[in-house]
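Record format v2
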Amino acid sequence: AQSVTQLDSQVPVFEEAPVELRCNYSSSVSVYLFWYVQYPNQGLQLLLKYLSGSTLVESINGFEAEFNKSQTSFHLRKPSVHISDTAEYFCAVSAMSGSARQLTFGSGTQLTVLP
Amino acid sequence: DVKVTQSSRYLVKRTGEKVFLECVQDMDHENMFWYRQDPGLGLRLIYFSYDVKMKEKGDIPEGYSVSREKKERFSLILESASTNQTSMYLCASGGSNQPQHFGDGTRLSIL
């Protein structure tokens, strides 16, 4: 079985400041890793993913995450945030379980960008 | 672009009612999933299906059942709704080794 820990439930940050949202996971098998973002009253949107290859993955809107196998982490970072980045962010791991690849989610981090 | 459509954004039902939540995807994905989302708990998997007429229990299946008669449609059924099933319900679909894509969710209130 796998589990995901998002260490911060709330992260307030001023506009144009850098931010890091932390995610640690545990699994006995190899995993895929994801960050999803949820804006108010919407479903989850895929932000970025690590399946294999380069351990640094980037999204189209300036976020990046680095897979660190030794520390079992997949922290999300952005060097300069905008008001529009205010949302809830979920880290997830995917591993084969039963007959399909299932996702296990962290409890989420609410990022609030202040003017 | 992948589209996952949930039939209702908001739903209000009474305790003891049988409730159906419908989900349709347009990408011919093998796998479909139902989650519930509660504050501070993230998303928890209720049931998933890896093929037509096939289903497997997730982490919290009690009080729920599912139906998948066609590949594109996955229904979640609350056999006898209770107040502790008030929640946001999210449907997702995905191919093998591919990310899951989510619908906009159904906010269900049981009175």
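Chain A touches chain B through 25 residues (CB under 8 Å).
The mean pLDDT of chain A is 90.
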